[in-house]
């Protein structure tokens, strides 16, 4: 009996000891309480450990030691000091600051805690946003204009206006950031049109002004030789002219059809957004905001699935740029051959902001059809709202040679239908959308 009682008491003591150990571990578990569990920092600025300390509620938190690690996207976690060195090297900063972390993107803060020989790691996502001190400069013929100015237009918005988004950049020269434009400007109709330029990453940072489209002077009609004239007749939107060309009435629609017989209204300017430098061969390329967003998703998917990338090598072109390209081709190879390679001004899809030409990094656009990237693009572009606009073997229908590098944004739904139909966009539009 005594022996049985002994085992009972021993068992109780063991259980009690285990419970005490668990309670000890639980009540001495390292914990951290943050004032904000989703902190936001300024992009292109420095972050110090002392600033991170201000995020921590030291009164309610429980730990004896605290340290921080940093993990940027696709990088391994690294100590604060190693992260500082890595960022300084990556960004090639001239005025680096000792032990201060340069921020150029979102990252994960890893908080390492120690309490009574126990350790814990807490992951905190940190978002980097463009500084509220970012600003926009707008120039008209290289003259800086003031916000809310009203500017009398000439004939080409893109030739006359230039706009720049700028943000403080690590105590160095300001950095360019992407801008977008929102306007219903119609050069065919005289009047005053509001224009808003905004920082793409922060649409609350804006620059507003107006443009005045003057009435056109009435000129005596000039009779042109039909055999030598390269300019289309002036038609009313949606109405066929004597030469069969049509001025489209849905120029701002994602499904607009522009080709050799269907042209854009005079002075048409689409909504535009800059293509981030990481997705283009150089800075300054622009396209419709939806097309830019979809293209970025396309490139990211291509890289995730194949390890390869494509870049924008041509996108939106204003009327004057298309005129120069067309005239250059005519001077080199003649008018008839040029029509197979380039569009007349007003008849180019590039003027819609919905078409993008791509190439591989360091490659030649005209060799794109021989790459693995072109095969992936042909099979997957519709997933992101694009089609190969001028497919092989359809030259007699589209009027253009095979261009595997030329993609057109339609939106996912319509692009998938066109892709699955096996038709060119001309064929699909005439059958289902006309």
UniProtKB/TrEMBL annotation:
The chain crosses the membrane at residues 7-27. Keywords: Membrane, Transmembrane, Transmembrane helix. GO terms for molecular function: peptidase activity. The keyword Cell wall biogenesis/degradation does not apply. One of its GO terms (biological process) is proteolysis. Residues 287-412 form the D-alanyl-D-alanine carboxypeptidase-like core domain. Residues 220-237 have a biased composition (Basic and acidic residues). Residues 220-245 are annotated as: Disordered. This is M15 family metallopeptidase. It comes from Erysipelothrix inopinata. The lineage of its organism: Bacteria, Bacillati, Bacillota, Erysipelotrichia, Erysipelotrichales.
């Amino acid at each position: 009996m005594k022996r049985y009682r002994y085992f009972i008491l021993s068992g109780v003591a063991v259980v009690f000891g285990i419970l005490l150990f668990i309670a000890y571990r639980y009540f001495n578990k390292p914990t951290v309480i943050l004032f904000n569990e989703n902190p936001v920092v300024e992009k292109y600025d420095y972050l110090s450990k002392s600033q991170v300390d201000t995020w921590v509620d030291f009164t309610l938190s429980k730990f004896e030691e605290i340290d921080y690690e940093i993990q940027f996207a696709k990088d391994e976690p690294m100590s604060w000091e190693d992260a500082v060195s890595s960022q300084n090297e990556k960004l090639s900063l001239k005025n680096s600051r000792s032990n201060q972390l340069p921020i150029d993107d979102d990252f994960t803060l890893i908080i390492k805690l120690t309490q009574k020989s126990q350790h814990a790691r807490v992951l905190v996502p940190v978002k980097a946003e463009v500084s509220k001190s970012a600003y926009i400069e707008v120039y008209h013929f290289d003259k800086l204009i003031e916000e809310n100015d009203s500017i009398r237009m000439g004939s080409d918005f893109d030739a006359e206006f230039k706009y720049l988004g700028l943000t403080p950049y690590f105590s160095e020269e300001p950095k360019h950031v992407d801008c977008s434009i929102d306007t219903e400007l119609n050069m065919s109709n005289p009047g005053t049109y509001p224009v808003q330029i905004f920082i793409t990453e922060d649409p609350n940072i804006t620059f507003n002004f107006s443009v005045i489209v003057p009435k056109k002077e009435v000129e005596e009609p000039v009779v042109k030789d039909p055999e030598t004239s390269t300019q289309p007749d002036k038609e009313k939107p949606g109405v066929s002219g004597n030469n069969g060309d049509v001025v489209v009435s849905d120029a701002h629609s994602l499904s607009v059809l522009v080709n050799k017989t269907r042209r854009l209204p005079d002075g048409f300017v689409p909504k535009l957004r800059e293509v981030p430098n990481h997705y283009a061969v150089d800075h300054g390329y622009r396209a419709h905001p939806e097309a830019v967003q979809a293209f970025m998703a396309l490139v990211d998917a291509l890289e995730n699935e194949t390890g390869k990338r494509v870049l924008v090598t041509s996108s939106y072109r204003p009327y004057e740029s298309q005129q120069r390209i067309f005239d250059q081709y005519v001077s080199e190879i003649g008018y008839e051959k040029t029509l197979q390679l380039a569009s007349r001004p007003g008849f180019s899809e590039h003027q819609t902001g919905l078409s993008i030409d791509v190439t591989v990094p360091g490659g030649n656009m005209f060799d794109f059809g021989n790459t693995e990237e072109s095969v992936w693009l042909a099979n997957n572009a519709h997933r992101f709202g694009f089609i190969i606009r001028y497919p092989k073997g359809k030259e007699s229908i589209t009027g253009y040679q095979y261009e595997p590098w030329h993609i057109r944004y339609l939106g996912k739904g319509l692009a998938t239908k066109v892709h699955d139909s096996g038709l060119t966009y001309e064929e699909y539009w005439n059958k289902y959308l006309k």
